[in-house]
Amino acid sequence: MPELPEVETVCRGLRQSVLGRRVEQVELRRRHIRVPIPDELPERLEGAVILRVERRAKYVLIYMDNDYVMIVHLGMSGRLMVLSVIPDEYAKHDHAAFILSDGQVMLFNDPRRFGVITGCDARDLQHHPMLAGLGPEPLSDDFDGEYLYNLCASRKQPIKPLLMDQKWVVGVGNIYASEALFSSKTLPERPANSVSRKQANLLADSIKATLLSAIDSGGSTLRNYVDSRGEAGYFQHRFFVYDKEGEGCVVCSCPIKRIVQAGRATYFCAKCQK
Ligand SMILES: [Zn+2]
Asked: Which helix (H) or strand (E) holds 51?
């Protein structure tokens, strides 16, 4: 499943290749993915120029010059890619194709169909049901040790599910929550209100560093963003604890443990993390 770094990488790839292009034609090959694609979407996009591409949480926001914003979520298996020419034949799960003025095609492919393509006027964006109520971006200045400490101080729940709650901070998924807790030496089951100010600082910094390092490793896939059929969204990053059950901890060699928290697998080192 694409997490924040993968979505950020997709946004960077799009910025390199589609800004300033006009959408000539929208071909919806399937009108219903996770939710229906709005009927108005093709006519709102056709003839409009792509001004900006932004990321909010795990949504790709494509701002057009007519104040419309296309909102794309990759779901479990979605890819948003750019081909240099219209393909002779679309692939099975190519659900939407956006033909651009320079002959390129922006393509949305999603075998499992948990992705979303929708849109709204820019002025309505912050109240859009999918975006309203989202917490701060983890890489922004709004998210820091002080914010995290204050958040934790009044909550008894374990720290890891708290970090994954989009109300409090967006885009820290299961993988990067486990990794950041490991690098800040914080036990995932630790009650949030037992986290000290110093620990909260360390954890906030680890979250940022872990995400940035993953975004960096996505950077190497960007050179080939066009015609890559979306590999940029699914780069392999090296993890310390995630999916490493039984393997030796890189710090102390103790076997990495796996538990389930709030229905999600959590990986940690019982010796290094307190
Ligand atoms: Zn260890």
From this structure: strand 50-56
